[in-house]
C-alpha cells in the first residue's frame, strides 16, 4: 500500500519518505536498528537507514565495550516502545549485503501525522548517524536531494543529542564500541 502525499502532515517527516509500503504483519524488534516482519509469508528484515545502535553481541569473538550491551538493550526497548501497536510503513532505499531491506521505518502517530523511528532513536541518544554521507565519493554517500536532506536532518538531531549528553553521548564512544 502506498500513501498519497496529500494525506501526510509535514511536521514529522518530509513528504518524500511517506510514499512507502505498509507493514501488514506483526513486527519483531531484533535490535535497536533492525526489525523483522512477514510479507507474503516470507520473513523480511529491515535495517534502519542512516543510523547505527550499539551491539548486543559480536560474532567475531570481540569483547563488547563497557556500555555497549547496556545501550544496545536500551535502544531495542526504546524502538519496541515507540512502534508497539502502531501502523508501520517503510520507505525502501536499497538492499544490503545480507539481503536486508535498508529503509526508513515510520509509524502513524495521529490522524495525518507520521514519525520516523530512526530519527527518534537519534534524537533520544540511542543511535548515531552512520552508513550515510553527503559525500558522493564516500562508500555510503547519497546523491539524491531528498536523501542528502535526510542526512542533514539526522546530523542536526545527533548534534543536539551530543550537546545535551543524551544516553550514548554521556560516554566516550570507545566505551560503546563506536569509534568513528
From TrEMBL:
InterPro entries: SNase_OB-fold_sf, Staphylococal_nuclease_OB-fold. It comes from Mycoplasmopsis bovis. It is an enzyme of class 3 (hydrolase). The lineage of its organism: Bacteria, Bacillati, Mycoplasmatota, Mycoplasmoidales, Metamycoplasmataceae. This is Thermonuclease. It comes from the Bacteria. Its EC number is 3.1.31.1. Residues 29-171 form the TNase-like domain. The keyword NADP does not apply. PROSITE patterns: TNASE_3 (PS50830). SMART domains: SNc. SUPFAM superfamilies: Staphylococcal nuclease (SSF50199). GO terms for molecular function: 3' overhang single-stranded DNA endodeoxyribonuclease activity. Keywords: Hydrolase.
